[in-house]
Amino acid sequence: MPFADLHLHSRYSDGTYGPEEMAAEARRCGLAAIALTDHDSVEGCADTAQACAAAGIEFIPGVELTVEVEGDELHILGYFIDTQNALLLSQIERFQAARQNRIREMVARLHRLQVPLSEQSVFVLANCRSPGRPHVARALVQAGLCRNLDEAFERFLRRNRPAWVPKFKMDGREAIGLIHQAGGVAALAHPGLNRTDAVIPEMIEAGMDGLECFHTKHSAATAELYLKLADRYGLLVTGGSDCHGMSKGKPLMGTVRVPCGRLEPLRARAAELRRAALLRAAP
Ligand code: AMP
Ligand code: FE
Ligand code: FE
Ligand code: ZN
């Protein structure tokens, strides 16, 4: 049976693989399809699509948007999005500008702590439009200012540590609407990590299409719980490894996957949404 891993990060956010490595790794894992879901970015989609096409892997353009619902940070996955959609691109640009300012602010805080990390070194290392804390951590290690990533997070970057800066988040409803108008389906990422089941009904009301039932950090019991919930609310089911390449120790691609049959209802829903968007745009 062919399988798909629908949650992957590349070097265009906080993963380490470039497009060629994504496709090669997908082949090595025997996957038939992958979705790229970088944090607040679609920068890698075009090149990864090309690399996947050359490798005979189906590519699904995706994104993982950082949102806030009732004060909690949640992640919304978008699949089958049009990565050229003007509104999506302009909102993502806002996100990325905020992420870049956040890097500057984190570096300024490090300077106040007498940690001489250069802003430039973080941006050079990140080499993408959607930099985040992992890049600051890697730059700290590279500069010899921390022994390893854990130390960087523990001493400086974790929530409420001295160099932590809150992240820009989009409103949850707004994110779902943004994905829909770009012709994509919206799914709540790793609900078991957030334990924010209470917000699921209001996300459904806002049009959320699916739930990421299968995830690296979901136990079998957690997956079962969300499968039941998806069934009860008529939500589509997604799943993926949330692989970040080599940046979290071992690469996870393919360790969590769904049968490609799960893609069909997602594709059908996306087609419906695109039709609705076209009708709205029609005179
Ligand atoms: P950001 O989006 O900038 O807030 O960074 C979030 C990323 O940092 C996620 O990919 C996390 O997995 C990663 N992260 C959070 N805490 C740690 C940690 N203690 N060690 C390594 N990575 C972490
Ligand atoms: Fe990440
Ligand atoms: Fe996430
Ligand atoms: Zn992720």
Question: Would you kindly provide a written description of the structure presented here, covering whatever features stand out?
Answer:
This protein has 283 residues and is of the alpha/beta class. The chain has 2 domains: 3-91 and 168-281, TIM Barrel; 92-157. 45% of the residues lie in helices and 17% in strands. The protein has 11 helices and 9 strands. Strands 1, 2, 3, 4, 5, 6, 7, 8 and 9 form a 9-stranded mixed beta sheet that branches. Helix 1 (19-28) packs parallel to helix 2. The longest helix is centred in the middle third of the chain and has 27 residues, at 86-112. It is globular. The chain starts with a strand and ends with a helix. The structure holds adenosine monophosphate, fe (iii) ion (2 copies) and zinc ion. Residues 9, 14, 39, 244 line the site of one fe (iii) ion (FE).
CATH T-level fold name of the largest domain: TIM Barrel
Tally of individual domains: 2
Helical content stands at 40-55%
Number of strands: 9
What is the 3D shape? globular
Largest sheet: 9 strands, mixed
Radius of gyration: 19 Å
User: Which structural class best describes the helix and strand composition?
Assistant: alpha/beta
- The CATH homologous superfamily name of the largest domain equals Metal-dependent hydrolases
H/E element sequence: EHEHEEHHHHEHEHHEHEEH
Distance between the termini: 44 Å
Instruction: List the bound ligands.
Output: adenosine monophosphate, fe (iii) ion, zinc ion
Low-confidence stretches: none
Write down the overall mean pLDDT: 96
Number of helices: 11
The CATH architecture of the largest domain is Alpha-Beta Barrel
**Strand fraction band?**
15-25%
